Every structure is written in C-alpha cells, then in structure tokens.
C-alpha cells in the first residue's frame, strides 16, 4: 500500500486567524501536527495542503512538504482532495 496523509492548513479562519502558525510549546502548531503524523508510521508520505505562502514557508523551513491549493477551497476536505489530485497529476499514486 502507498498511504498519503494530507493535513489541511488555512490561515484565514474567522475564529482563530493564523492558527496553524500559533506557537505551541515553542513550535508552530502545523509543525507539531506534521511531526506527529510522520512519527505515527502509518503513512508513506505526509504533506500540508495550504493556500497561504506564510504557512508553506514555515513547513518548508522545518523540512516538511507542501502542496499549494486554490484559495477557493470550501473546506478542509476539498483542500485535501485538491492536493491529492495535484500529486497524482504529477505521477504519484496513493491508495484511497
């Protein structure tokens, strides 16, 4: 099996803008989530799906992988789907 984990991350939340970049015990929340998913060993690949370059830059800085998505994604599920489609369009294949 080839398992992909996609973590949706949006900066423009109405309740907590910038939440993925908020520090939790000294690290950005998105880094903590990424590292937890990676350390689970349950996935072959982990990516962050975002439409925000600030989030993408932080992910790249800690060595994570980013897939840029449209700002028009209605929710996290749609953002994850778009990221998976972009990866598959680039030749990568994952199990659903």
Topology:
Elements: E1 4-9, E2 23-24, E3 27-28, H1 29-40, E4 45-50, H2 53-61, E5 66-68, H3 76-89
Parallel strand pairs: 1-4, 4-5
Antiparallel strand pairs: 2-3
Summarize the structure in words.
This protein is α/β, with parallel strands linked by helices. Strand 4 (45-50), helix 2 and strand 5 form a beta-alpha-beta unit. Helix content is 36%, strand content 20%.
Helix share, percent? 25-40%
Structural class: alpha/beta
Strand order, sheet with most strands: 1-4-5
Mean pLDDT score, rounded?
94
Total strands: 5
Portion in strands: 15-25%
End-to-end Cα distance, whole Å, is: 10 Å
Order of helices and strands: EEEHEHEH
Shape: globular
Rg from Cα? 13 Å
**What is the makeup of the main sheet?**
3 strands, parallel
Low-confidence stretches: none
Q: If helices are DSSP runs of H or I spanning 4 or more residues, what is the number of helices?
A: 3
Oligomer: single chain
In brief:
The protein is of the alpha/beta class and 96 residues long. The protein has 3 helices and 5 strands; from the N terminus they run βββαβαβα.
Question: Which characteristics define this entry?
Answer:
96 residues; two-stranded antiparallel ribbon; 3 helices; single chain
């Amino acid at each position: 099996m080839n398992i992909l984990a996609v973590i949706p991350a949006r900066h423009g939340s109405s309740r907590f803008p910038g939440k993925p970049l908020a520090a939790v015990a000294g690290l950005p929340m998105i880094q903590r989530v990424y590292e937890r998913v990676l350390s689970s060993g349950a996935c072959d690949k982990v990516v962050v799906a975002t439409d925000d370059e600030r989030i993408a830059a932080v992910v790249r800085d800690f060595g994570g992988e980013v897939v840029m998505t449209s700002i028009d994604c209605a929710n996290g599920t749609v953002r994850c789907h778009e990221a998976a489609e972009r990866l598959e369009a680039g030749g990568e294949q994952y199990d659903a």
